[in-house]
Amino acid sequence: MSTATDTPEATTAGPAPARKGGPGARARQEQVTAAGFLAPALILCGVLLYAPFLYTAYLSLTEFNGLGDPEFVGVAKYTELFDDPNIVQSMLNTVIWVVGTLVLPVGLGLLIAVLAHGLKGSFWYRLPFLLPYAISGIAVGVIFSFILQTNGALTQAMEFLHLPFADSRWLLDWPLNTFVMIAAATWQGAGVNALLFGVGLQSIPTEPIEAAKVDGATGWSLFKNITWPMLAPMTTVVVGLSIVGSLKTFDIVWGMTQGGPGRVSETLAITMYKQSFMLNDYGLGAAVALLLTVVTVGASLLYLRRQLAPAREF
Predict the structure, then answer these.
(1) How far is it, in rounded angstroms, from Cα 186 to Cα 103?
(2) Cα–Cα dist 181/157, whole Å
(3) Contacts of 190 by beta carbon, 8 Å cutoff, 6+ apart
(4) Is 167 helix (H, G, I), strand (E, B) or coil?
(5) What is the pLDDT of residue 30?
(6) pLDDT for 250-266, tens place per residue?
(7) Which residues form the ABC transmembrane type-1 domain (predicted)?
(8) For a surface tag, which of 66, 185, 200, 267 has the fewest beta carbons within 10 Å of its beta carbon?
(9) 236: CATH
């Protein structure tokens, strides 16, 4: 006989209120909040990085000696780049630096890492090659200029031992001066490349190496077909850093020859500095700086795109 009675909550409760927005609205709100926190840092980076680049691009289109107002001359400074034999020589030297630092510091670093890999206490074998990296480029230039200058330490040692080429003018004749400066850069940079390659070798799993040895692979065959392909990620890093560093070479050249004698051993970075701050031709200096920036970024992107293309295909 008894019937269920409705509770006050049951009789008065209506449909649940709809929530404002949804997951999409909350995600957008979080993005707006995150953008608000990131905005100051992005603005600061934009001001410190892009504003000077844009101003340099503007100066490259002007005639400006640091006094008065820049005079707009269009692309005249870029035309002058390729008409000036000193700047063309600087471009050639920069190319030699890129090739030389890929062959010597990278190649020697790889050789040191491979020979030391697997040896007990291999770190101590690499340490003597790593120590020069702690010395600044200017200091390296000063050290090697003392060794290689006319009647310097190397010449005197070669004359004492009656070795050939003792009368070579190491820092005075081109391209010999560029080659010996690359050798100085090799002395400084081979150790850090060996360290990086050593890290890459340690990250390679042992199973493929052991399987290849079981199949009879040894020595050069083992390195070429197994080790080298598996070392590709670290090789990409080392070669990429080498390309960027060689394109911007300044300190060792300045410490050894300052681009001389005359201007035969200048790199683009040295030319940019001299045109801007010694010859007061800020327009031409800015054009060299912009050319160097475009070449550096373009070479880096081209290399990385080529190296990473196989990874994207998978």
Answers:
(1) 10
(2) 19
(3) 104, 105, 108, 109, 112, 129
(4) coil
(5) 85
(6) 999 999 999 999 999 99
(7) 91-303
(8) 66
(9) 1.10.3720.10
Q: Which long-range contacts (CB under 8 A, 24 or more apart) does 172-181 make?
A: 172/261, 174/264, 174/265, 175/96, 177/256, 177/257, 177/264, 177/265, 178/93, 178/96, 178/97, 178/100, 178/265, 179/100, 180/144, 180/148, 181/141, 181/144, 181/252, 181/253, 181/256, 181/257, 181/265
pLDDT band, very low/low/confident/very high, at 20 (cuts 50, 70, 90) = low
Reduce the DSSP state of residue 95 to 3 states and report it. helix
* Three-class DSSP category at 175: coil
The answer to whether residues 136 and 251 touch, using CB atoms and an 8 Å cutoff, is yes
300-305 average pLDDT score: 83
Between 5 and 273, the more confident residue is 273
DSSP 223: I
Quote the Cα angle for 89-92-97, to 5°: 125
Burial of 9 (0-12, 13-18, 19+ CB in 10 A): exposed
Residue 74 lies in a domain: no
Task: Find out whether 267 and 244 touch, Cβ atoms under 8 Å.
Answer: no
The confidence score (pLDDT) of residue 11 equals 47
CB neighbours of 71 closer than 8 A, spacing ≥ 6? 62, 63, 64
Residue 102 backbone class (left: φ over 0; alpha: ψ -120 to 50; beta: rest): alpha
Count of structural domains, the chain: 1
pLDDT tens, residue by residue, 150-185: 888 999 999 999 999 888 999 999 999 999 999 999
Query: Degrees (nearest 5) of the Cα angle 166, 170, 175?
Result: 125
Q: Which pLDDT value is given to residue 4?
A: 46
The angle formed by the CA atoms of residues 6, 12 and 17, to the nearest 5 degrees, is 130
Task: Say if 41 falls within a structural domain.
Answer: no
Say if 234 falls within a structural domain. Answer: yes
What value does the mean pLDDT of the chain take?
86
Predicted TM-score (pTM) of the model is 0.83
**Cα–Cα distance, 303 to 311 (Å, whole number):** 14
